[in-house]
Automatic annotation (TrEMBL):
<feature type="domain" description="Methyltransferase">
    <location>
        <begin position="33"/>
        <end position="125"/>
    </location>
</feature>
<keyword id="KW-0808">Transferase</keyword>
<dbReference type="Pfam" id="PF13649">
    <property type="entry name" value="Methyltransf_25"/>
</dbReference>
<dbReference type="GO" id="GO:0032259">
    <property type="term" value="P:methylation"/>
</dbReference>
<dbReference type="GO" id="GO:0008168">
    <property type="term" value="F:methyltransferase activity"/>
</dbReference>
<protein>
    <submittedName>
        <fullName>Class I SAM-dependent methyltransferase</fullName>
    </submittedName>
</protein>
<dbReference type="InterPro" id="IPR029063">
    <property type="entry name" value="SAM-dependent_MTases_sf"/>
</dbReference>
<keyword id="KW-0489">Methyltransferase</keyword>
<dbReference type="InterPro" id="IPR041698">
    <property type="entry name" value="Methyltransf_25"/>
</dbReference>
Length: 196
């Protein structure tokens, strides 16, 4: 599915970073950033432009090739890893930040992945998360049609046990990211920190 979606010449979700990531980027420690479910690379490239050493992970080789193309276009470099997040190993204590933007997974994959995310942050490290909320299911502005892929804030709070969650909000906001995310949307946003 994802290789087909990313096969278009244009970027399915645009070339500009997610707005929540843009607003929270000052909270990210200098150093290494891991972007999971990164697709065509818009967020990874943005962070590389800010001087971070960024690794983008995705299941789609087509998406990651476009991520490298965008990095070249913007004059930066990123690392890419082709992997299934169901069994992607995250080295404990390795990352200054981990970013999950509209990375929707079934609970049996999401919950253990999010636990690996918590373990993978180094002390003081930052989590930046935005995803669609269950209320998005009634909208035609983007996101999965399967409600199991749309966790609410309470589920995510459980997933990210062990982090200090300083920003946790469910909200409606306009999302304008490429052709697939367009219009008023119900989202969950989380900014968390690993205790130092």
């Amino acid at each position: 599915m994802w290789n087909e979606r990313y096969a278009m010449e244009d970027y399915a979700y645009g070339k500009e970073p997610n707005e929540f990531l843009r607003r929270t980027s000052d909270d990210i420690l200098p150093g290494d950033v891991l972007c999971l479910g990164e697709g065509e690379g818009r967020n990874a490239v943005f962070l590389a432009q800010l001087g971070f050493d960024v690794t983008a992970v995705d299941l789609s080789e087509v998406g990651l090739a476009k991520a490298q193309r965008l990095a070249t276009e913007r004059g930066v470099s990123i690392h890419t890893i082709l992997a299934d997040l169901a069994d992607f190993a995250i080295e404990p204590g390795r990352w200054g930040a981990i970013v999950l933007i509209f990375c929707h997974l079934p609970p049996e994959i999401r919950e253990p992945l999010h636990r690996r995310v918590v373990a993978g942050l180094r002390p003081g490290g930052t989590l930046v998360y935005e995803g669609y909320h269950p209320d998005q299911i009634d909208k035609a502005t983007g996101g999965p049609s399967n409600p199991a892929l749309l966790p609410d804030l309470e589920q995510l709070r459980d997933d990210f046990t062990g982090l200090n969650l300083q920003c946790m909000q469910e909200m409606e906001r306009p999302v304008h990211e490429g052709i697939y995310h367009q219009g008023d949307s119900a989202v969950v946003q989380i900014l968390g920190f690993k205790p130092a």
